[in-house]
Design goal:
The chain is α/β, with parallel strands linked by helices. It is 31% helix and 15% strand.
């Protein structure tokens, strides 16, 4: 969900993002909290099961964990599949303040990667200018988003 938040925030209206998981569990409260610290509200986000997107036509699918990478083979025909694994920041046995710091570190790692990814979109000739549908996929409750579908004739779909 943090990747979804970053990509939507940085990509603006030119990027439509949907989120899915191989084992969706909702948005972790600490993910909501640490993203709000950087001005990004993910409190209303939800993660669907990846199977709900079998009929979707995405420009790109971004997987953010290794198990999701394998599951993405069921999604038909994205122009690109991009994999960038991030650590799952959810350690239930950890002290709450230490855990918050872990979430912050992962949030920042995802943010840096997302900035580079969105900047690269402007340079990609097959993505430039028309709006992009992106899916991020994870098997973690905290990390993933399901990519961007192709723009509809009326413009990018709403999330």
């Amino acid at each position: 969900m943090m990747a979804h938040g970053w990509l939507r925030h940085l990509g603006g209206d030119g990027v439509a993002v949907a989120s899915a998981g191989t084992e969706p569990k909702g948005v972790h409260p600490l993910a909501v909290s640490v993203m709000s610290e950087v001005g990004i509200d993910i409190s209303g986000y939800s993660s669907d099961h990846v199977s709900e997107y079998l009929a979707s036509d995405f420009d790109a699918v971004v997987t953010v964990c290794d198990d999701a990478r394998e599951a993405c083979s069921i999604l038909p025909g994205p122009k690109r599949t991009i994999h960038r694994s991030f650590e799952d920041p959810d350690y239930p046995e950890m002290d709450p303040e230490e855990l918050r710091d872990v979430f912050r570190r992962i949030r920042d790692e995802i943010g840096v990667w997302s900035e580079g990814f969105v900047a690269g979109l402007a340079l990609a000739p097959d993505f430039g200018g028309a709006g992009l549908e992106l899916a991020t996929v994870t098997n973690l409750e905290t990390g993933g988003s399901l990519g961007l579908p192709h723009p509809s004739p009326s413009g990018p779909p709403s999330p």
